[in-house]
Specification:
Layout: E1 4-7, H1 18-23, H2 29-40, H3 43-50, H4 55-63, H5 71-78, H6 80-83, H7 91-100, E2 104-109, H8 115-119, E3 130-133, H9 144-154, E4 161-165, H10 168-176, E5 180-183, H11 188-197
Parallel strand pairs: 1-2, 1-4, 2-3, 4-5
Helix pairs in contact: 3-4, 4-5
């Protein structure tokens, strides 16, 4: 029986679109491509999420491959939530309903050490029974170890959990740890159907 629902953050509870964040800076197409490549698609970005590289070191690494005119833009993108932090439509209602049904609700996010600074701004944060942020544990989804660490941290049983993420690889990682799940593509009614299919009686 499913008793606990574990949610990803970016792309599930909040909108997370790096290309959109770059667009908010109103740079040229050429500079947009540079920023996408040298900020979001770098090893440094993922090392921050793993907690093995600090923000200042990561920023220096990124800027070394960017022209000076884009250094300020890179700094702004490092704190993408200050450009826009937009809740995913329909998800707060779903999380609140899950709590009303007696389900445990948890967060499992690949994010930097600064994640607590902005997640608490979201109304959905007040419903969370527990949170695990990758950088604090030096693990990343889709490693099965991060799911196993979460089960231990909160005393959860894998067969009683259901994981929701926008990444196929991350959901597959959960399965490797014995946790069923669903890939979220922005379609909340479809997610509700998936929850119903595993015995969680949310409304359709």
């Amino acid at each position: 029986m499913i008793r606990n629902i574990i949610f990803d953050m970016g792309g599930v509870l909040v909108h997370y679109d790096p290309e959109h964040f770059v667009d908010l800076l109103s740079v040229s197409a050429e500079d947009k491509a540079l920023l996408m490549r040298e900020v979001f698609r770098t090893v440094a970005w993922f090392r921050m999420d793993r907690g093995t590289m600090g923000e200042a070191e990561a920023a220096a690494s990124m800027k070394a491959n960017l022209p000076p005119r884009l250094h300020g833009a890179a700094d702004r993108l490092m704190a993408w939530w200050e450009l826009e932090l937009r809740p995913m439509e329909g998800m707060e209602d779903l999380v609140r309903e899950l709590k009303e049904l007696g389900c445990g609700v948890y967060l499992l996010s690949n994010a930097t050490l600064r994640q607590p600074e902005y997640f608490d701004r979201l109304p959905v944060s007040r419903y969370m029974d527990g949170r695990m942020v990758s950088a604090f544990h030096q693990l990343l989804k889709p490693q099965h170890e991060i799911f196993e660490a979460m089960l231990r941290e909160f005393g959860l049983r894998a067969e009683e959990c259901f994981f929701v993420d926008d990444s196929v690889a991350n959901v597959e990682g959960a399965y490797c740890a014995g946790i069923a799940g669903a890939v979220f593509d922005g379609d909340v009614p479809r997610l509700r159907q998936g929850l119903n299919a595993v015995g969680v009686g949310v409304t359709l």
